[in-house]
Amino acid sequence: METYTVESLREKIMELQIRQAEEGKVLKAQLVTTYDNLKPVNIVKSIVGDVFDSKSLRDEFVNSAVAYTTGLITRKLIIGTSKNPALRLFGLGIQLAMTTLMSKNYATVKEVIAQLAGSVFTKVQEDFLFKNDRTENEQPG
């Protein structure tokens, strides 16, 4: 059996008190962090962050927003600001049809628009280059 002196026991007690104080600080810091994470506003922020970090959910949100906007614009272009209830009902039907069409075929429509934009850009670039080439050849030299 080990024998301890009074001085060695005091040193051990002092070491344990220091260790207890350090662990207490760590525990308090963890408690504060846990308390902050459990606040309702932080829970909502976490959920919203998770939703918008998900690429598929973000793409689906963009898809829905584009589809709805397209339907709304189509209705406004065709019907305008008519007060006729039958015409307004017809406009809502057109809006619903366009929204459904866009949401189901979003990838195809996106691809077609990208191809059209690419061809228009290429055409503008070719015209610009052709025009510059012609002006260089016409300059007196």
Quick summary of this structure?
The protein has helices at residues 6-37, 40-53, 55-79, 85-104, 106-138. It has 141 residues and is mostly helical.
Structure report:
- With 141 residues, the chain is an all-alpha fold.
- The protein has a domain of 95 residues.
- The chain is 88% helix and 0% strand.
- It contains five helices and no strands.
- Helix 3 packs antiparallel against helix 4.
- The termini are far apart.
- The relative contact order is 0.05.
- The mean pLDDT is 84.
Secondary structure layout plus pairing:
Blueprint: H1 6-37, H2 40-53, H3 55-79, H4 85-104, H5 106-138
Helix pairs in contact: 3-4
Key terms:
141 residues; mainly alpha; 5 helices; elongated
- The arrangement of helices and strands along the chain is HHHHH
Number of strands: 0
Helix count, DSSP H or I runs of 4 or more residues: 5
- Helical content stands at over 70%
Nearest-integer average pLDDT: 84
Large-scale geometry: elongated
Radius of gyration, Cα only, in angstroms?
35 Å
Largest sheet: none
In terms of per-residue confidence, which ranges show pLDDT below 50 for 5 or more consecutive residues?
none
The end-to-end distance, rounded to whole angstroms, is 111 Å
**Structural class estimated from helices and strands:** mainly alpha
- Which band does the percent of strand residues land in? under 5%
